[in-house]
Amino acid sequence: MGTIVDAWMQHPTQRFITQEAFSSLRRWTGDGAIPEGEIPLSVTLDAMDAAGVGVGLLSAWHGPQGALISNAEVAAWVASAPDRLKGIASVSLRDVMQGVRELRRRVQDEGFIGLRVLPWLWEVPPTDRRFYPLFAACVELDVPFCTQVGHTGPLAPSETGRPIPYIDQVALDFPELTIVCGHVGYPWTEEMVAVARKHPNVVIDTSAYTTRRLPAELVSYMKTGSGRHKVLFGSNFPMIFPAHALDGLDALELDDETRALYLHGNAERVFGL
Are the C-beta atoms of residues 184 and 209 closer than 8 Å to each other? Predict the structure, then answer.
């Protein structure tokens, strides 16, 4: 088993992969085919094995249309491979207090290690008032809030993914909250790096980008004294398989310490693994 931690993965349900918003992703990858029937968990574990990923953080997805990947499904998958998988919860913004209770139950009773809510699914920024009770709960539970930054690959508006002003404001309002910003923030990567430099508890994961496509400003930041502690590897499987996401890693010319922090050390610290 490898030592790599993949900070952003999904085990796809049919509800998830058949979303019309993802048609743009299928077009980009050149794979418009949608598998029939539910996909066995072994597919995800095999993809991890092929890349040397020891631990994958499986995310639930919840939007206005309901659960695309439910917390209960994630809990069952994690329970079947507890040494390989950890759960990231998601909740609805329609009933925020119910979301707070759901998050607490999943963390306290089932060992979930974070919350992910995607602002683009709701078409509101993370400074929307409905997020704030969830941020407070994350602080109390000592788990990170994980979200998406940058433009939206799926067919939805991208404005909600701007690091400035949104992530910057949340970090100011909740300085104890660890915020994991997935998808590198492109085309606002310089903004994302600036926000991560400014706030001790803001980190970046590289999900949805192959190593060869990482923006130069992010790679430069990874090689700085503080930046080496602020960037986590993520694939966004099944959109990108971990092995494909890691292809070209040697070309980054990271020193041994920075490489280890990027591939697993930072995630272990941020998520308490």
Answer: yes
